[in-house]
Every structure is written in C-alpha cells, then in structure tokens.
Fold this protein.
Amino acid sequence: MNGNAIAALIRNDIRLYLSDRRAMVVGILVPILIAAFFGYVFGGLGSKKEAGRIPVAVVDEDQSVISRAIVQDLQQDSTLSLQPLARAAAADKVRAGAIDAAVILPSGFGAQSTRALFTGENKSVIELLVDPSKATSAQVVQGLLAQHAMQQISKEAFGGATGARTMDGFLGTLGEPRAGESADRTELRDLLRSVRRWNSHNAAGTANPGTGTANNSAGAGLSIPYTVSSRDMTARNNVPYNGYAHSFAGMSVQFILFAGIDAGVLLLLLRGRGIWQRIRSAPMHKSQFLFARATATMLISLFMLTAVYAVAMLVFGVRIDGSLPGFIAIAIAFCLLNACFGLMLATLGKSAPTARGLATMAVLLLVMLGGAWVPSFVFPGWLQQLSRLSPARWAVDGFDGMTWRGLPFDAAVMPTVVLLGSALLCLAIAIWRFRWEE
Amino acid sequence: MLVIEKLRKNFGTRCAVKDISFSVGKGETVGLLGPNGAGKTTTIAMICGIAKADAGRVTLDGAAITPESRALKQRVGLVPQDLALYEELSAWANIELFGGLYGITGALLEQRGTAALQLVGLADRRREAIRNFSGGMKRRVNIACALLHDPDLIVLDEPTVGVDPQSRNAIFENIEILKRQGKTLIYTTHYMEEAERLCDRLVIMDRGEIVANDTIAGLYAQLPVRRDAVIELSGDGANDALIQELAARFGKQFQVQQRGAKLDDVFMRLTGHALRDASDTGESP
C-alpha cells in the first residue's frame, strides 16, 4: 500500500479545509449558535426561574368574593402571566395569538358554584377561550384553574358569607325535625348545623376545642392533599439537567453531516478537473484513494465535533457525566459514518448541485427524525419507532447518554455498533459504485 | 521505448480511437497533433494508464501500461490540459501533494521540488497561493508537478493554452531543457509553430485515426512546391527582372513580398478545412 500517497492526500484535504478559514469558522460557529438557542429554549442550565410564563387573560363577570379570590390566586401563580380584561378584548387577543387562553368567570359563578359543591346540580360554566396552536398551555391553565377554584370555592363554602347563606337556605328548606322523616334528611341537617357551628367558632377566632390551638385550616379551603417533589434523573451524580447538552448533540450531528455532504460534493466537482486526471495517472489503487478521502473527512469531522463540544463545555456547562471512552467511541463511529456517507454521496450523485440538494434534504430528514431539533419523545409512537432507523437518532441518543444522562460505557456499545454498521453500509455502496473513469 | 499497437477506444457506439499504432523512441519528442475531437486526449489517457483500451495495447519498454500497472505509471509524468492544481494552496503544498502521490517525500521531495520549481523559474514563489499567480505561472507550476518523480516519459497535453507569448516562450525553454536531459516527450498542441520548434516527429490524428506520422521535413515533402506571391503596387522603385517585366507589362511601379510554405499548410492539407465538434467524432469530453 502506498502509504505516502495516502498521507499526501489526507494532508492535502486537511490543508484545503484549513485554507478557507472563514468557512471553517462558520462551520463551527453556526452549530454552536443554533445549539445555544435551542438549549436556552429547551431548559438552559436547568434553572426554572427563566422559564416562560403562559400569557392568559381573565374575565371576571361575577365580581363575587370567590371570583375575585380566584383571580388573585391566578395572578400570584408563577406559571401564568395574567391580565384582567373584558370579554371582547380577551377574545380578540386569543384570536390574534397575543395570549394563549382566556378564562371567563360568568355572572353568578360564586353563589352557583358554592351551591353546586353540595348538590352537584346547576353547575356554573367557566368558558375557556383557547388558541388552538397552544393546546398545551390551555391544559396547564385548566389544571391551575381547577386547583385555585376548588380551594376558593370550598373556603367560601365552609367559612365564608356565601357559604353561610347557602347553608341557611338548605337548613330552611330542610325545616325542623319531624317524626318519621328519613335518616338521610336528619343526618344532612346535623351535618349542616355542625358546619355552621364550626364556621361560627372560626369567625369568632376561638381556639380549636380539640387541640387548644388556633384553627386556621378551615379558612384555607380544600387544597391538594399532597405535595410533589420532582427530581431530574440525569447523571449518576444527580447534576441538574442541562438543556444545552441535548441541543449541542443534535446540532453537532447535523452540521457534521453537512460537512460530509461538502466532502462528497467536492469529490464530484473534482471529477471534471485536471487534478482528477493527474491523481488517476498516479500509481495508486482506487481503494487507497477512497481510504484517504474517508480518513481526511473523518479527521475533519472529529475536529469540528471537538471544537463544538469544547465551546459547549467551556461556555455552556455541558459535561461528559457518563463514560468518556463511550463518548469517544460514539464520536469516532459517527465521524466515520459521516466520511463514508460523503463517499457514498460522491459515487451516487450525477451532478454536484443535484447531489447537494438531495443530500441536504436527506440529512435534514434524518436529523429531525433523529431528534436533533426536538427530542424524539415528543413524536408519536410510530414515528419514534421509525426514527430508530435513522443513524442520527443513535448518534444523538448516544451523545445524550454519555453527557447529561451520565450513562456507563455499556450504553455506548449499541449506538457505536449501529453507527459503524451504517458506515460500513455506506462504504460498501461507495466502493461498489465508485468509478475511476468518467 | 513507447509502442502503441492497434489501440482502440469506444465510447458507447462511437469509436474515439481507431486501431492506431505508432512508437516513440527514447529521448525523442513526438508531437501529437489533430483538430478538436481527433482522439488525442483519449490516446493520451490510455498512454498514461488513466483509461483502459478496448483493444490493442500500449507498452513501455515492452511492459503493457494499464490503469492497474502502478510500477509503469511511476515512469510516466502527465501535464494535463486543464490546470491540475489546488489554487487555494501554495505552490509548495501542490508540490508536496503530487510528489506524495508518487511516494516522494522528505529530503528527496525538497530536492526535486526545488529543482522543478527552479526549472520553471518559480523557486522564489513557492510559498505563495496558486490563485495569486498569472496564467503563465500556473502553467509552469503545472509542468513542475509532473516532474517530481523524475519520469522517463513526459506527456504534455497542450501546456501553453491561454498564456501570453512571454510565458509560452518560457515554457518552450523549460521543455527544451527536458529534451536536453534526455527525457522522452509526447507533446500535443494546436499551434504548428510550437510543434515545429519542439518536436522531432509529428503524429497527426483525425477522426480517431493517424493520417500522418513523419518528421517535419518528411511532412513538408508531402506538399507540392508552391509559392504564393502577393503583389502590391506602390510608388517605390524595383529592379528585379520579373518586377521589371511586370512593371513594363503593367506600366506601373510595384513591390513583391514573398513567403514560404508553413507547417499550417501541411496540417490543413491533411485534415481539411471543415470545423470539428467532439460530438461528431466520438471524442471523450
């Protein structure tokens, strides 16, 4: 094997890459910028204080104690950015996409909902105007509304003036005990009287007769009877999730594949030039030429990957919390795949512009399926299964595994094998289709 | 040294080179001439082991040259018609690449690369990017890159295309040095004065066939002796008998300007005046 010829070709390809400094910087800078943007949008460094609030309007047509309390609770909720509006203005804003949703508390809501709490009848209807493109926001608003409404309605029902009036009304309807009345009626009267007495105690600020302590719980209304402690399952040392880690994996994969396209297109362009004749007149076999091209592209890809991840680690706090050897194995396998992909493209393409266009479309499809732009778990089930056919998915998942997921080397084996297998497939096609002669 | 025997090359149904045969002796410079589409470039591709012949063979000192014969390729240097250079890189980076392809590295590359650049007069510009060179300088580097592995046979495919007279003259001088070094040269060109100046013998091709293979003197001998006279009547005096006679006959004073036959005349007589397109003759693009 003519090692000098191979070394000369590899050195030359790297020189060509380095000779265009502007293109080189752009090739590294663009994935960093896009990854930084997506990383920020999808969670940044794990801080929730920067998370965006959902813009919502509230229309209080009731102006009751309950409705005003609900509006106040919603205003204090850190998830929402609430603005009280009139019905028409709220509808216009939702329609225009200026806000995600509008909650309309109708007239009579307070009294009607307190009564419905006991009877289950004549429920008041809260209108929720929704921007159809923000369905997830609407679901969040609905959940928060249920939480705050239940708390305020129950609070008022069991301790407020509206609740007292409602219970007085019920007791009046039930009347005084009579001989032969049903047991249910008796028990309901007893319950309502007990609640009224309880409320009287609380209103007077008396101590809890059972505990001797001041009782504030009745005044708080019903609340969710548990709290949730969420914990990000990331690296083994439980470091916070870094949104940049995923976006840098995705963008690295995408832009390195673009570099693979460039390598393939350059080879296509070379065919029509005198250099091609001179290379073919040299004493070297086509397999040596292909090997040199693939090696050069792989080294350039590794350089790009290293540069992008260096910035990710130094500036954006991305860490390889998993296996470093695993990360390196996946990186080499992916860069080899990229080199073979470029060779395959050069052998299948008829002309440089056509090859570039088709390959760009294919790469975008592969990386989108691979979860480079958005995580693949947001896809429908069938698409998630389909996306496993994309080598980009294995690369992105592999890099995720070795960075923020903190997985051990074992988890890098399968992605590495799949990437190497894909590289061999591309190489086989390239060797099969490659023709020295024009 | 180089023997071409019944060489044939087809592109689909078109025959670009039709069973041609000729030879080139050691140290000889043979011009390969022909109109566009004559089959010159295809013939060169087969001589250099770039293209595979459909029939016939090319031998160098008895050994057949094919795309697979790497040892023989080491003895052949090609100067392609298109500039075979990476313009983004320096002259020396190109030297390193094309030297490396033939296994020339290290001190040997330094020695031969420097010598090649000195030959073409660009040793002091080795660090400059090719894109900053003039057309003539690029052509000279193009030649230098073919000399690094010290080939016995150098094939120059129209090495002076698109250069000014000064650069062309410099290239001629470079080639004459190679001739003096005893290199065997095959030189293709459309310029008859180049062939006349540089070549010992000419092989003229047309439509894939050889229509002449002779020394320049031999080719001239194929033309009938002919002299065209351009007679211009002017007011200057003349004493030639013919002129006197003509003057007496025409009754006016005039001047006679004469020129001899040129190689162009031989070429045009052999290949005709019709324009040629590659698509008409099956020449590869």
